[in-house]
Structure formats: structure tokens, C-alpha cells
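Write out this protein's structure.
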Amino acid sequence: MRIRILPEAERDLDIGCDFYDSQSPGAARFFLRGLLDDIDGLLKHAGVHEQYCGFFRAISKRFPFAIFYALSEDTIDIYAVLDCRQDPVAITSRLGERSIDRETRS
């Protein structure tokens, strides 16, 4: 199985890095390493997480972020990496947009 981080999820990671870097220089590197470790952990645990808005949702171990992913036969597609401190309506809306994008990729 392989992991594919889609462009919109990469943008989410960039936004998170920008936020943590604005809080403390160097914090972005720690944030990114932590989230990428969580994403790598999906190789072992993909599919065991609860589903939310049509995606599996894995909660980061170190940060208030969730990784939203889908499974295919041989790939774990990361669709979003979102800050859980956002308004739940905004999260649902963003995932809805990405769900539509997911359908067009299939």
C-alpha cells in the first residue's frame, strides 16, 4: 500500500506550518514532522478510524488536527489535514467540496 497526499491536503499542511511558524520560529518543522509521522502511521492502521463526511478521520497524536483519507485497493489518499479548532460547519463544508472532487477522480 502507498500513501498519496493530494494537493489540497498539501495546502492544508502549508497553512498549518504557517500558523505554527508564526507562533514560534522552528515550530513549523516540528508540526510537519508530527503530522507526517501520523500520516505514515496510516500504513499500519488505515481503515480503523471512524468515518466523517465520507472520509476516514485519523486524529493527530500531537496536534489538534485531523487527517481525512480514503482507501482504494492499493492507495491511501489524503484529502485533507484540518485544524479541529475550526468551526465544525466550516470543516464539513470543506470536506463536502473535497468529496465532490473525490468523486470526479474516481
